[in-house]
Amino acid sequence: MKHKLGMYSMFLLDIAIVLFSFLFVAKLRSGTRVIISVYWRSLIPFTLIWIGSGIWGLKYSIKTIASGAELLKRLLKCDAAAIMLLLIVMYVFGKFHYSRYIVLGTILGVVVLELFIFIGLYYALRFHKENKTFAATGLYTRSKEMENLQSPKFYLDEPLQIPVISNEAYIPPFSKAIPEDSIMVPIFQTYLKDHRNLLDFINDYVDLSRFSKAKTLVLNSETYFNIENEAAESKALFINLHKINDFRRLNAYFIRANEMLSLGGVFICRGQTITERKQGFYNHFTPYLGRVVYFMDFLFCRVMPKLPVLQGWYFALTKGRGRALSETEILGRFYFCGFDLIHKREIDGTMHFILRKSREPRADANPTYGPLIRLKRKGLNGKTIYVKKFRTMHPYSEYLQAYVHATNDLQEGGKFKDDFRITSWGKVMRKLWIDELPQFLNFFAGELTLVGVRALSEHYFSLYPPDMQELRLRVKPGLLPPFYADMPKTFEEIVESERRYLVQKMEHPIRTDWRYFWKSVWNIFIKRARSN
Fold this sequence. Notes:
Helices cover about 50% and strands about 10% of the residues. Strands 2-3-4-6-5 form a five-stranded mixed beta sheet, with helices on both faces. Strands 1-7-8 form a three-stranded mixed beta sheet. It has about 525 residues and is α/β, with parallel strands linked by helices. Helix 9 links the parallel strand 3 (about 235-245) and strand 4. Among the domains are: about 1-130, no CATH class; about 275-320, no CATH class; about 450-530, no CATH class. It starts with a helix and ends in a 7-residue tail after the last helix.
């Protein structure tokens, strides 16, 4: 059924391409209405012939195609057959008085659009099939981790460095290796002899005397095949010197590395962050030209992979190599795949990571990539609602919650002092309240009111006193919480602020909301109040 649905979708898409090409060519000529009135009857057999040739040549059966080259051959074969049949029909019926501009322009438009859209869709579908578990990039992110997250807001003025967990060297839970079986000598004399800075970094933070040759694997490859057949928990140390930006299936690779390592085992790798990537462009092209080059790179390597058809072209052109990854996303993927960070260091323009296997990989099949997120919250009478927002954090940020708690201090009001997960455009969206706009969908659905207590996750709701929990469930949460009217600084003050609001609302609902609304508006626009 799904296969037929896919064929019908491609069939209808091709009809749309034919109509669009004809109307576009007609639009380029003067007398568009006259052209459409003259040619619309002829467009019907043109479309039938074009679609018929596609059915004959299996052009719409994308899921049965083995490669992009095969799809290209089918497209060209079907289109050539259609053009030949069109010329024969025109000759038989003596229709060569038709405008060559209209006929040839429509044919050229259909061919170009088909090649672009069909091949792009093919590679996008192929990418999703290969990464089916972790490649869902829909409009909404339905990550379970994200749905239960209730992060404070962050408004940062200075660029932040991502912190490290500890400066102490990691001692793996393994006995020391026998000297003749130790990996230390091969590491120093063979594997990393040309990587002195990396060797020093590893030696500073890992006790190499605990790893044997038999339990160590050192590679310089992006190929999944090289680790695919390694036995589960057969290694204690895995080093890959190749940049992870070139790994076509990042999560699959990291998960396989996790399976291959014993619990407490060490994974060492390197990757270029977008900050290092930008600095590389600035150094190579000068800061002025570098900004232009980096902007084009941003569009190609960060925007294009997230758009349906263009995503297919991106992976067709790059084969997944040279990906632009933020340091936050890299770390988030590590934690998602069951690793914890021991330490990190920039060496020769790329970030190197020392990680330990701490747990099994997560089973969440939908990490954050979509432009919209939904947050699982308690509504009226305890009903579960999903509050919508624009995503303002880097992908995979939700899996770093424990890491951020472990490495950052909380400042007044419960904010994280240094939260690096917010993107630069995310900070702008939050300051301008743009990220909150999708919540109006909840408002129009009757799940939120204009003024009301903040919708809370299950965890944060459980932190409230029992009487406040009961009180909160008696009213709908709102878009504009009493926080903005009272501006409390601690959790206890927030609870008391909400208690006062709810008690007053029970007695005088309209009057209370009216007063809190205008007080909140005054604090937001005049006093520049911000949420925690």
